[in-house]
Amino acid sequence: MTMMSSESNEINRVALDPARSAVVEACAGSGKTWLLVSRIVRLLLAGAAPSEILAITFTRKAAQEMA
């Protein structure tokens, strides 16, 4: 389980890096919406204008969580 945890941390570190582009695909309940919102916050804190950010989600529930 420690290996999975460190692998997850590395994936999150890469996906949350505002200098990189990222595509995240995972099963339901895995934290994709949290990751997407966290990435948006990091982009804004790094100086990105809201009009420069495009976030796409494919469920109504995730869209409501982001709003």
Tell me what the structure shows:
The protein has 67 residues and is mostly helical. It has one domain. Helices cover 52% and strands 0% of the residues. The protein is built from 3 helices and no strands. It is flat, with a radius of gyration of 13 Å. It starts with a helix and ends with a helix. The mean pLDDT is 82.
Question: Brief description of this entry?
Answer:
Helix content is 52%, strand content 0%. The protein is mainly α and 67 residues long.
Q: Tell me, rounded to a whole number, the average pLDDT.
A: 82
- Helix count from the secondary structure assignment: 3
Return the structural class. Answer: mainly alpha
The number of strands is: 0
From the N-terminal CA to the C-terminal CA, the straight-line distance is 34 Å
Stretches where pLDDT falls below 50 for ≥5 residues?
none
**Helix and strand succession?**
HHH
Q: Shape, please?
A: flat
- Compute the number of structural domains: 1
Helix content, binned percent: 40-55%
How big a fraction of the residues is strand?
under 5%
Largest sheet: none
Rg, alpha carbons: 13 Å
Write the layout of secondary structure elements.
Elements: H1 2-15, H2 32-45, H3 60-66
Features:
67 residues, 3 helices, mainly alpha, 52% helix, single chain
